[in-house]
Amino acid sequence: MLEVKDATIAIGGHILATGLSFMARDGQLTCITGPEGSGKTTLLRTLMGFLPVSSGFVSVDGELLTVKSSQAFRRLMIYLPQQIQLLRHQLKAPEAPVCEADDFGVWNDLLPVPLQASQPVLLSPEEIYQFAEQTLQTTNDKQMIIADEPAAQLPPELADRMLQLLRSQVIAGKTVLIASRRPLLVDDADLVINLNQNT
Fold first, then answer.
1. Closest-CA residue to 196 (of 3, 31, 86, 40)
2. Strand 55-60 and strand 28-33: pairing?
3. Model confidence over 1-25: pLDDT tens digits?
4. 3-class SS at 130?
5. From edge to edge, which strands make up the β-sheet containing 28-33?
6. pLDDT tens digits, residue range 60-82?
7. Which residues have C-beta within 8 Å of that of residue 194, sequence separation ≥ 6?
8. What is the mean pLDDT of residues 169-187?
């Protein structure tokens, strides 16, 4: 379970949300939504411990999450990034040497560092779904699933399959936390946090 209490989320001096409180529970799909630029991805980064809250707190299973303590907590998490095509070598053999790891890739060996490429080859919608499915099939030891816009690049049929994939994690008793503007996912969530209403 992840709890956010009276949190202020800010980046570069710009406040994205203030007084934010919610609990993302085990066996529940929680969706963070809001218009583009409202801070959904920033909030996810905060919930993974990469950014501190300006006030309030974030806790995981009752233990305070801070930037310093976050590495231990991230061992309980799996992250599906919005720019999933940067991790395409999870599906395909590497074609170039790896470059310096980004801050997400370093903490989870299921998310290897992106390939060095000036113009990364985009994954097809089917490959995006396949990547998510393969990743989640190997996360039995992870209690929390965090996904940034998991259905943004998918047609309706695959978006529905992605929702069922996430729901299977919920049924397994895991905490599933997503950021999405896709009505299919927002409407199906057990709890919706609208950042447009928390500023």
1. 40
2. unpaired
3. 999 999 998 888 888 889 999 999 9
4. helix
5. 77-80, 144-148, 175-179, 28-33, 191-194
6. 999 999 888 888 888 889 888 88
7. 33, 34
8. 96
Tokens of 39: 């801070």
Structural contact between residues 9 and 46, judged by C-beta atoms closer than 8 angstroms? yes
- Under DSSP, is residue 45 helix (H, G, I), strand (E, B) or coil? helix
Residue of 56, 58, 111 whose CA lies nearest to 83: 111
Strand pairing class (144-148; 175-179) = parallel
- Count other Cβ atoms within 10 Å, centred on residue 178: 27
At 11, list the tokens.
């980046």
**Helices (H), ranges, the chain:** 40-47, 70-74, 125-137, 156-171, 183-188
B/e letters for 37-59, b = 16+ CB within 10 Å, e = fewer, are ebbbebbbbbbbbebbbbeeebb
pTM for the predicted model, two decimal places: 0.81
Residue 110: band (very low, low, confident or very high) from pLDDT cuts 50, 70, 90: very low
* CA-closest candidate to residue 166, choices 155, 177, 179: 177
